[in-house]
Amino acid sequence: MRRAAVIAVTALAPISWGSTYAVTTEFLPPDRPLFTAVLRALPAGLLIMALTRVRPRGTWWGKAAALGALNIGAFFPLLFLAAYRLPGGVAAVTGSVGPLLVIGLAALLLGERASTRATLAAIAASFGVSMVVLQAGAALDTVGVIAGLASSASMSAGTVLTKRWGRPEGVGPLVMTGWQLTAGGLLIAPIALAVEGAPPALNGTNVAGYLYLALVNTAVAYWLWFRGIERLTATSATLLGPLSPITAAVVGWAALGQALTPVQLLGMAVAFGATLVGQWQPAPRPAAKTSVPLPVPEPPAAGAPAAVRSAAGPGGVRPELQDAGAGESAARARPRR
């Protein structure tokens, strides 16, 4: 698949995540973030594992658990904690530093040296997101800011380690998605039970919302995300992240009737432009052509048989090589028309 197609398909993941806020506020019971996190991850992970019937082997039990904790198990609770302690715009801004964290971790763990262009694109994307979601007079909460930065660091580390470790031979991205969602969901479940108590009663609207989050927003979206990380650099993949708050703003305007100010529209343009710039790669330079000299045969030794010296011709060069050399000289001497 061409790189542009890989980028477009991978971008569907953050675009899908941008609909999470609208679905949560309109379809799900209130004040149940950890329960929502469990239902997003665990059923989808168990379903994928039941369909694929592939289990981790050897060291991959530990690797799958670590990736599941970073990408799901720690990321979801920290993200929801930041969302509850901070205004939505501030929480989104703390998450938008993810590309910068990935650039640093990729250089350390993967040897990916980010270009100045990619670094500036990450900074511009974060600035654009702040223009879209940050409201004047937004209050800061120390615990919320720490949780927001920690959630971004967790997802960034998971992205880089997913790229570094790859996957076992014969195991596809869908299987890896099932492993991580299951591990992350199992990590969140006891925390949700201890903090929020027994699950709430659900109506038809709630069930529809949870089905969307589990199947489309999580199972399919994370499969596309992990698949994209495998085919792109970690920096290119994470620079698609700003599409999530952009999508959230568009969905809020189209579905929830939220107004978009000129500053927000400008911020969307800046963030989207930075995302495009972050995916651009210069064309490789063509390799310089080098001429390979023809080998010059060595004359036969003085003690060689007479037949060999005769076959070598005058000067110790074989006749056919003399003819070839003469033909080449004639070709060079022939005037060009």
Mean pLDDT: 81
The protein's oligomeric status is single chain
Structural class: mainly alpha
Low-confidence segments: 314-318, 320-326, 328-333
Radius of gyration: 30 Å
Q: How many beta-strand segments?
A: 0
Give the termini separation. Answer: 46 Å
Query: Can you summarize the main beta sheet?
Result: none
Provide the helix percentage.
Answer: over 70%
**Shape assignment:** globular
What is the H/E order?
Answer: HHHHHHHHHHHHHHHH
Per DSSP, the total helix count is 16
- Beta content: under 5%
Short overview:
With 337 residues, the protein is mainly alpha-helical. The chain has helices at residues 3-17, 20-27, 33-52, 60-73, 75-85, 88-95, 98-109, 116-133, 142-165, 173-196, 204-231, 234-238, 243-255, 262-279, 306-312, 319-333.
Describe the protein in words:
- The chain is mostly helical.
- The chain has helices at residues 3-17, 20-27, 33-52, 60-73, 75-85, 88-95, 98-109, 116-133, 142-165, 173-196, 204-231, 234-238, 243-255, 262-279, 306-312, 319-333.
- The longest helix is centred in the middle third of the chain and has 28 residues, at 204-231.
- It is globular.
- The two termini are 46 Å apart.
